[in-house]
Design goal:
This protein is 40% helix and 18% strand. The chain has helices at 7-14, 38-49, 83-99, 117-136, 151-154, 177-184, 195-200, 210-223, 231-234, 243-258, 263-270, 278-285, 327-332, 340-345; strands at 21-22, 55-62, 65-72, 103-109, 141-149, 163-166, 206-207, 287-291, 304-311, 314-321.
Length: 346
Amino acid sequence: GYLRMPAQKRIAFLTEKDSFEEWDTGLTTENPLHMIGYPDRIKSLQEKTKLDEAVITGKARIGANEVALMVMDGRFLMASMGEVVGEKIAKTVEYATKENIPVIIFACSGGARMQEGMVSLMQMAKTSAALKRHTESGNLYISVLTDPTTGGVTASFAMLGDIILAEPKALIGFAGPRVIEQTIGQKLPKGFQRSEFLLEHGFIDEIVERKDLRNRLTTILTLHKKDDKSYTDNFNIKKEKSTMAQKKRESIKMITESVKKSAWDRVLASRMNDRPIASDYIDLLFDDFVEFHGDRYFKDDQAIIGGIASFHGMPVTVIAQEKGHNTKENLEHNFGMPSPDGYRKA
């Protein structure tokens, strides 16, 4: 798990130096419910955090990729979503759609802001509609979930990403664990609503440690560049082939050379424990493979491996059936037999 990171520090950590251009500063709420003390609370937080509101929005570069970037900050009323937060996110997404650039949102929130009532709940629909138009225009949306991401934010834009990443051990859910336990009268499973639990159940694509996040985003963004001709020039992160990959090459060579012409020799070769499987071929054939786990419904079926990669400089989607090398791996991958969850993932 990680300490919560202020939005300004996260932006500096992720983006190229001096590339971030902040948008829509100075927007203020009109206190729609005339909540006593609410404007004073907002003013106090602005002075304390040096933030206008619970989200910073703008344009930046990550690697060589221009993106619309939104980062929520839990220090400001637990990054709850009121009319200003919703408006800033919707406007930034609309700009990204117009400019044909990807959207990245770092979610961290306690949910809709109760001090603004129905106006805050309306932001769920407004941000979701803006992202729907963004998707329909053929543009990419990456959602990154941090600790905690809950309530109306989870129930709207946070879980609508084309690709959903999460930091380790982040709390992600709608209602909190205590509320659910009190409602259903049952004890919840260990680790319920944490990133690892959601990955196992197919709701997120990958858990990425903070130190690896910038490189992972650069890889994903570069693989999704619309101009394929620029791919080779702009893609600078190269994965060095490991000694394991070399051993796999030798294994494939040994198997192919040992096969004689008789049918029985071919049968024996097909039954060898170290016979190459899907992940071996992916390691050998493709560069920069990024595996995605989510079927967005129920489970991460390990009989199917899917993700994006590059093949001789061309971005590709890779889907394969995985069986495993030994009995333990065979069981984990259900002997390469996909369930409905695997087909949804594919």
